[in-house]
Amino acid sequence: MSKSHPSPLAGIRDVFVGTAVEVEHEEASSAIGYGLTLAKAAGAHLTIQSASWRLSGDDAWLGSFDGEGASLIDRRLDALARSIAEHSAGEAAQVGVICTTEAPSLPYPDIVNRLAMRARLHDLTVLDIGARTFDLDREMIEKALFHSGRPVIAVPPGHDAFAARRIVVAWDGSAQAARAVNDALPFLRAAEAVEIVSVGSEAEIQAMLPGAELAPHLARHGVAVSLNDLPEGESVADTLRAQAGLFRADMVVMGAYRHSPTREYFLGGVTRSFLRGSPAPLFLAR
């Protein structure tokens, strides 16, 4: 009798989704649908933090509210966040995913601090990329990345369902890129096609650890991998974004940097550019 092989995603046991309601007419969260379908595919537990941004108190300066007006908005936002949590739990139950929800009402920056602490207890965190009044999405992504020790999948609008058939790895030979590749291995092994993309002149690519040296490592892990070295063009971000579109990538894997003193890399210019407009969900790690 042949032995059954576990799913490549079997190592993902718990998925954390973080959302924050800051206006009454909140756009629907793509991260919730993505996280739910990812948890279903992996057979993982799902935790959803649907927080509301409490305006009363120190945050009242953000609008021309008196104490009573801010408290009224707080109650409405809290009710909306709880409704999102309850609806998500119901959808999870329908597809057989075990789901835990929480709906804290918190001032800024407690929302992002709590998110980072909770993210430490899960295999990965799924967050929205979206236009926010106070850029809260970007704050949540950066805080989770740099303070949780766990990878983040940042989901652009319209990507409500998990997919990872075709993946682009943005590779520059750095320790952060290597960490991202390692953390993303469950997805890379499950993919039908993975392309390692390095951007720069021939001399720049040879000066880094070339993708050609990464490819055998991934192949030993059962990853179907190809290589693509590209000239920078207008910018590294634009080149990577265009290639991800041409490759029809379901996911882009990146190492996360803070600003570099010599060149803007991930969570400098490249990742910030992707967070303003990505063709696919971003798997980020550092």
Automatic annotation (TrEMBL):
<dbReference type="InterPro" id="IPR006016">
    <property type="entry name" value="UspA"/>
</dbReference>
<protein>
    <submittedName>
        <fullName>Nucleotide-binding universal stress UspA family protein</fullName>
    </submittedName>
</protein>
<dbReference type="Pfam" id="PF00582">
    <property type="entry name" value="Usp"/>
</dbReference>
<dbReference type="InterPro" id="IPR006015">
    <property type="entry name" value="Universal_stress_UspA"/>
</dbReference>
<feature type="domain" description="UspA">
    <location>
        <begin position="165"/>
        <end position="285"/>
    </location>
</feature>
<comment type="similarity">
    <text>Belongs to the universal stress protein A family.</text>
</comment>
